[in-house]
Amino acid sequence: MSPSDLFDIAGKTALVTGGTRGIGRMIAEGFVDAGATVYISARKAEVVAEVAAELSRKGTCIGIPADLSTEAGCRRLADEVAARQDALDILVNNAGATWGAPLADFDEAAFERVLALNVKGVFHLTKFLVPLLQKAGTVEEPARVINIGSIDGIQVPALETYSYSASKAAVHQLTRHLAKRLAPTITVNAIAPGPFESKMMAATLEAFGEQIAANAPLRRIGRPDDMAGAAIYLSSRAGAYLTGAIIPVDGGIATTR
User: In terms of CB atoms within 10 Å, which of 155, 187, 216, 232 comes out highest?
Assistant: First the structure.
């Protein structure tokens, strides 16, 4: 098998949640560039339509608005995809939220909103899409689930984002649990990003970006192709024998601390 075949995902079908901005868009655009048919979802219908149109200039991208913070919303998105596709090769669970507040002010809403989307949304959407993933996957070429965790689920973050770090640690453990359950025809892995340019990271990078880059062993923040490359690896033949893994894509920040 040639190196180009090893990392080839052309012709595969993928769903990327939270695919209109940040890490989700980086992955969606990378998949489109690689020749996959890509569905993206996010809450705001007009933004979904706009980004799907932009990415469709380079390949095939279809937008489906969805609120994945409820089980019903996850079921609706799965049903919409099933109405269009007989099978699904790749699911990227990227949609997420964060919250920061001092310990004394960290209330129920600060946990409920984040856990509902970051943990329960990942679980329910995966659950509802298992039939489509099973139709696509075989022992030799499994379907792929890629959950987006965070290095904040591996190390203790500097900021007071208690529900976010707890949710990402939960995503990492859920990844391992689902990997065991869904094998051998579906693999489940997680990418744990470090600093990348996104709306969620914008304020942090504006205030501390140079310091974060200086403290990273690789001396920079992540680029879109860094994230797309990791996702393409996990989705291609090259990543077919990997499941239950948490891969930090962070310039060495968490792994060398």
Answer: 187
